[in-house]
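Dear support,

We are seeing what looks like truncated structure output for some complexes. This example has two components. We would appreciate it if you could run it in full and send us the complete token output so we can diff it against ours.
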Amino acid sequence: MSITRFVTSDGLPGLLAFLSQNGRRVLVPVEKPANKRSVVFEAWKQGQPFTLEKATVPPKAAVLPQCETLLTYKKSKDPENPERVSISLEDGIKAQPTVVFACRPCDARGFAVLDRPYLEGPFADPYYKARRDQLTVLTLTCASGCNTCFCHWVGGGPTSLEGSDVLMTEVEGGYVLQAVTPGGEELLAATDLPDGAERFPQAEEARKAAWASLEPAPNIKDAPQKLAALFSNTEFWQKQTDRCLSCGACTYFCPTCYCFSITDEGEGLSEKGGRRLRSWDNCMSSLFTREASGHNPRALKAFRMRNRVSHKFSTYPENWGAFSCSGCGRCISNCPVCLDIRAIVLAALNAKQATAE
Amino acid sequence: MATKKTSGKTKAASKSASKPVSKPAVTGAASQKQAVPAPARETQPALRPDAELATREVHSPVIREEGELALKESAVPATVETPSAAAGPAPAAQAVTRAPAAGKGMRREISPRPKPQGNPYKPMPATVAEVIQETGNIKTLRVILDDAEAMRSFSYEPGQVGQLSVFGAGESTFVINSPPSQKDYLQFSVMQAGEVTAAIHRLSPGDKVGVRAPLGNYFPYESWKGKDVFFVGGGIGMAPIRTIMLHLLERKADYGKISLLYGARTPRDMAFSYELDDWLRRPDLDCTLCIDAPSEGWEHKVGLIPNVLLELNPDPSNCVAVLCGPPIMIKFTVQALEKLHFAPENIVTTLEKRMKCGIGICGRCNIGGRYVCVDGPVFTWKELQELPPEL
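Here is the complete output from our reference environment:
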């Protein structure tokens, strides 16, 4: 019997207080009133209001911060012999135990997508690994679909458990928590919440209802081959990306986009020194692949969007056996010109002739 | 060592065949497959409290050999890290750990090669020992790792690259163009083109730099044994050719005829000019030099590399052509080689792309699903033909 617990709606702050023990950082969705209202993950403090809405920005930064220091460098002189100079490089890999609270199944699946290249490739990324090892994901299952999300097209769903340690499902008066990993089990066992077994059937009903609310998903299993076959069809890609502004909002809001840049900041090698940073990068920018010679393998926005869509639906699946899109729909809802990645994939599937060399 | 690039699909198929889903003996395993009843959707996860706890179910669609979308079910034995002794009374604080997904790993194979140990982003401190002005815009740097032990034990294969750091300016990727037998220093030849290369050009002996190396794959020279090898270098593209050519000349007995065609725009654009007399004189190397347009005092060939190559007319029957140069030169030289009836698998080149991480993650040097930094930089023309045309 899986470990389940029940928490009342009023009991959530208490649960957050428990999760915050022992120096854990608990990232919760927080509402940000502004011209355009948004919901972002922030570290919870006692008494802080929070929401259980789907966040505007996914919690990707919990494992892959928008900007982080890879190294600090400085030079030091030997006091005995000032001619002798040495460099000191510090990588200072460290991570704080972190709980992501009430992300959605698409966000949790985003972590699973990132895990493959960052942990299972030819090199494991030590910065990512440190954070991932310390991460616990409590996922709130969705009560229904929405018109931009399509998690069930890409192997997920409103109750998907991939990437999660605990699933939370809303039932009358509160939430049923269900551990789905050993880590989640241990976490739930340590709470003083009552057992949730009695209410679990209600949670199951809610999950079924969530699935029932979805529009039927088209079959996109042929997307990898279709997209690959369309690679050289520039006309197709130009048509699909005609109105793209190359703004990169789609990559910024994406739970599975993981490209980054490395830059140096501060002084060069001096006694003060500087640091080497990693920051999110954006494959929609023409500078992303432009070489110093001026040569650019992806000079057109059509080629850049081709890379983005192909990576998610063709080349990542080729390398890792799964789509690198979790269907959260944020690239659709945040696109200033209403580009819809679903439409591009479907257009590729329906394209008559594959290649126009 | 040949670059082993099996097709991703074949690989995956054999993997799934050899790795039966190993479920720990816990009851309720069957319930994993039992879908929450929503008839239209068969691929959704079963979520029941009696589902195995010790497993993390992965239900991403998997593209199988036959192109079927399937449920990839991975069951993982529970691996819970023991909390550290100092953890105190709340075990959950530390014990949360990520169960690794079963059947993990890439579906494409990365050939074995020397690679950096430890944090792959952390360069090794090094000192510039010598700077050679090759041409107006090319300099060669010889750098020595500051850690004497690291320098002594540093090993690489010809064709592997390094990320050279000028702290404050950044990193760029260059082939290590000394032959691996050269143990005293690492040599990089750098054409000034952008910010980092400009900073590299400002370096003087004694300056401190950083090196992340060796990265990438290397020339599959073992598989060329017994064959003729025809090298074609264009401009700065001579750098990688130099390392593999000198490497082969050290083991000349294993190979047939070794030839070099080295071209540059003008005589003044020829890097390694101080070595050319030796290369021309060597009995074990058939060296041809060419420039694009006639120049006073030039005693060698005149013409574009592909044309001179056609004129030289190398015999393709037992020969590997190895070329490096700017993209336009590669394009036309490959055409010339095809005209000469070189088979695609006997044409080998090494590519350049803008790179950041150098370890297959950051996402800009990919050609389709392959990353020049880990699947390359060395590719056969056959391998490139199977990839999308995104050079």
